[in-house]
Design a protein that fits this description.
With 253 residues, the chain is α+β, with helices and mostly antiparallel strands. The chain is built from seven helices and ten strands. It has one domain: PPM-type phosphatase domain (Phosphatase 2c, domain 1).
Length: 253
Amino acid sequence: MSEAAPLVVEFAAGTDLGCVRASNEDSFGYDLARQIYVVCDGMGGMAAGEVASTTAVRNLLKAFDEQSAAPSGTAAEGRMRDAIHAANRSVHASAAVSEHLRGMGTTLVCACLDGNRIIVGNVGDSRAYFWRDGQCFQITQDHSVVAEQVRQGLITPEMAEASEMRSIITRAVGVAEAVEPDLFAAEVQEDDMVLLASDGLTRYVSEGEIGQVLGSGQATESMCSQFVALARERGGADNITCLILRITRAASA
């Protein structure tokens, strides 16, 4: 009996200015050879948010590639953690040498396929969702004031959604010399999907609606377009970015 072809990722991504913002401070990136994908949502005055997010994306991918190429044998979780640390150092260093970039930072959520496992890392309130067989749930935990209040039982999720403090994050890449990401790992199988998204999408589209779109049978490009359209129809007060990963089998030789 021949072995099954290895799992690979089919993906699509989309980003949009939204209906209010004058510039797009979201960034996304990927390395197909290393099968790592990332979404960042920058923050800071003037162009600082855009600089923070693009710097984080570029340096995370660079560091992950360098570590993957080295004969260290470090597990994927370790390579991802180290790459996020490298992104943090790069953003923090850039802010330290430029007055108009001072205080900039960015959220970050990333995922990589490692054999039959998906590894997810996050800092801030950009999110990852997992879909399988019609079931959808959030993988990551938001690093925000209201999310921490919900986890402590101080407020309900409904109160958090209505709170004026919902955009205040408690952890970000580049704000301090060091940051500690959350990491998650799970086994995956063919047809599983993962969504990486900035809060410009998730503040307007519920977990249930995300599951409906991911389970709609559309091409991943069409799903991204639908997510952006939904967020814009409902106000689009922030930049909107989504990146969808569909787990599939490599084509037979």
